[in-house]
Amino acid sequence: MSAAVYVISTVTGYVLTSAFLLKYPSLLHRRKKEAFRSRHISHRGGAGENLENTMAAFRHAVQLGTDMLELDCHLTKDEQVVVLHDSNLKRSTGINAYISDVAYADLPPYLCKLGVTFKRECYCEGGDDKRIPLLRDVFESFPNTPVNIDIKVNNDILIKKVSELVVQYNREHLTVWGNSSNKIIKKCYKENPQIPVFFSLHRVLLLLGLFYTGLLPFVPLKEQFLEIPMPSIISKLKDPEHQKRSQLYVQSDGRSFEWNFALDWNVIMGLFYWSLFFPFKPQVYVWVLNDEEDFKRAFDLGATGIMTDYPTKLKEFMEKNSYTK
Asked: What's a GO biological-process term for it (predicted)?
């Protein structure tokens, strides 16, 4: 047998085996049980309708019927797990101090008005609730609501204490945690593999490489959630006027698509397509979307859930357009 024939037969066999296992992944991998499925996700509790990461925001989102609360965690000087996005208190409270240097009892309240990170030139004004809450407050108040926890710093004590709280309140089946950092994800999984984790940025890139090289069926994956930004959202936040001027149209089967739609399609579907065949069908969350055209685009592209600062707007859109469970 010549070398060329050997190479061709080997490659053909590999491609066919990979394709077969993509279609029947349970032959190699045990199907994981899905604890919950979330379509409507309130980013920081709904940062466009109430002050972010406050109990008022979480209560409002839960009363609306959100499927999941997304929040961020830090550790105070006296090792209390608090719900807060920034490591420094300046943006949220006006006090230039790091959360890790302040005891919980000494934390200042939120400012009365905060900018909405993922909505240009928009601000949210708060009511009476300006207190930075503890994670245990959220768990006690919403025992049946899934919570998505972003571990904001690479801190072993923080990770351990969050895990202990999840176990204490019997929420391993209602929690997903992690960070874009692969180091933090690894520590979370090592600390408590019973709590589902989402893909870090490093693992997302690895996932794409495995899929397009045909290696994905042979590699076990511990993650159950994909959380990805929509590319067009990033450009919209940077310069919405430039985005409008630079829209290009391409023809495909007689239909016109905006360039940004094509970019979103390539990124989101490249990540989502493989999950159609994988045994545990990971959930794909797109963040952070705050306009109806973006809601529609994400759901039409196949996203299983949308993270938003405006839970009321997303709920009304889903009900009006039948994007319900």
From this structure: N-acylethanolamine metabolic process
